[in-house]
Specification:
Length: 327
C-alpha cells in the first residue's frame, strides 16, 4: 500500500472575481452519475460543468469506470472516502487531491498498469503502483517509488481509567521521525495541542506510546495524532472520541509560575457569566478576566512577585479556588 507524502508546490495565479461553488457527493456511485449536490444533505443530481474556483468534496465511495476529463479548470478535490478507478481520471496540471485522513483511499479493483490518474498529459498513478492512502496530497509531483511514510501507525485508541482518559497507539516503523503532537477538541473541528511525545528517529521495530489526559473535558473528547518528521513534514491520522463525565474543575499550569503569565486549563466550556479572579496572600484582588475557552491565559504587565496566590473562578453553578505559587 502506498501512502501519500505532501509535496509543496508554490503557485502564483492572477485571478480576478473568481467565485466558485462547492460540490459534495450526496450518494455513492459512478462519478459521472447523479450523486452530486451543493450541500452535504442535498438531493443528488448530475455534476454541472466545472469552472475555476469550484471545490469538490468526495465523502462517499465512488467509482470511475470510464474516462473522466477534469483538466479544465484547476480544481482542489477533498477526499474522505474511497475512489475505485478502473477507467481514467484526467486532472489539470496544477490541480490537487487532498486526502483528509487514512480513510481516504484511491484503489483500482481491476489492477493493471495502464494510466489511471493523469495530471495534464503525464501519468501519475496506475493500478500496479498500489493503493494510495492518506493523509496527504496527490499532485503532479507525486512519485510512488520515492514517497516513504514517516511512520506506519498500527492503531490509536482511548479508554477511561478512573478520572482520566488514556490514549494508546503503536507504530510498526518510523522513518526520520521527530515527534507526535497530540491534539484535543471538544467539537471535532477546533483542535489544540495538549502534549508532544518524542519519536524514535528511524526504526523498523514496534513501539508503543501512552498518554494519560488527567484533565479531560466534560462531555465528548476528540483526539487526533499529528506526526512531525525532522524535515518538518506532518501527517494527521484518524480522529478518536471518548465521553467523560465528572466534576467541573480547573488547574493552573505551570505551577509554580514565573509570574508573568498564568495559564488556566478548564475541563468544561465556560459560560458567559464566568469570571476568573486572582488574589494575593492578603486577599486583595490583583487581576481578573472572563474566560471564554477551555484554555485561558492571564498576562501581567508587571510580573507578580514571589509568593502564594489564589485563583477563584465563578460561573453559573460553579465556584472553585485553586492555589498557585510564583517563584
Amino acid at each position: 500500500m502506498r501512502v501519500l507524502v505532501i509535496f509543496l508546490v508554490f503557485l502564483t495565479m492572477a485571478v480576478t472575481d473568481v467565485c466558485g461553488t462547492d460540490y459534495y457527493t450526496a450518494a455513492s456511485g459512478n462519478i459521472t452519475g447523479d450523486i452530486w449536490s451543493t450541500s452535504t444533505n442535498g438531493t443528488p443530481g448530475p455534476l454541472p460543468t466545472l469552472v475555476l474556483g469550484d471545490r469538490i468534496f468526495i465523502d462517499d465511495n465512488i467509482v470511475i469506470n470510464s474516462n473522466v476529463d477534469w483538466r479544465n479548470p484547476v480544481l482542489t478535490i477533498y477526499l474522505n472516502s474511497t475512489i475505485d478507478i478502473t477507467g481514467q481520471w484526467w486532472l489539470a496540471t496544477t490541480s490537487q487531491v487532498s486526502f483528509q485522513s487514512s480513510s481516504a483511499k484511491v484503489i483500482s479493483s481491476g489492477g493493471g498498469n495502464s494510466d489511471k490518474i493523469k495530471f495534464g498529459n503525464d501519468n501519475t498513478w496506475s493500478g500496479n503502483d498500489g493503493d494510495l492512502t492518506g493523509p496527504g496530497t496527490l499532485d503532479q509531483n507525486f512519485d510512488p517509488d520515492t514517497s516513504p511514510l514517516p511512520i506506519q501507525l498500527l492503531f490509536f485508541s482511548v479508554k477511561r481509567v478512573e478520572k482520566s482518559l488514556v490514549l494508546e497507539w503503536t507504530t510498526a516503523s518510523e522513518l526520520n521521525f521527530d515527534y507526535f503532537s497530540v491534539e484535543r477538541s471538544s467539537d471535532g473541528n477546533d483542535f489544540k495541542e495538549i502534549f508532544q511525545i518524542k519519536g524514535h528517529g528511524t526504526t523498523n521495530e514496534r513501539h508503543n506510546y501512552r498518554l494519560q489526559d488527567n484533565q479531560p473535558l466534560i462531555g465528548k473528547n476528540y483526539y487526533r495524532l499529528k506526526s512531525v518528521d525532522f524535515n518538518g513534514y506532518t501527517e494527521y491520522f484518524n480522529v478518536i472520541v471518548a465521553d467523560y463525565s465528572g466534576d467541573k474543575s480547573f488547574l493552573i499550569a505551570p505551577n509554580p509560575s514565573e509570574g508573568s503569565v498564568v495559564n488556566f486549563v478548564l475541563n468544561f466550556s465556560p459560560d458567559e457569566s464566568a469570571i476568573m479572579e486572582i488574589y494575593d496572600s492578603r486577599g486583595t484582588v490583583i487581576g481578573f478576566s472572563s474566560p471564554t475557552e477551555n484554555n485561558h491565559i492571564i498576562t501581567f504587565s508587571n510580573p507578580l512577585t514571589s509568593g502564594l496566590y489564589y485563583a477563584k473562578m465563578t460561573s453559573r453553578n460553579f465556584t472553585r479556588v485553586e492555589k498557585f505559587i510564583v517563584r
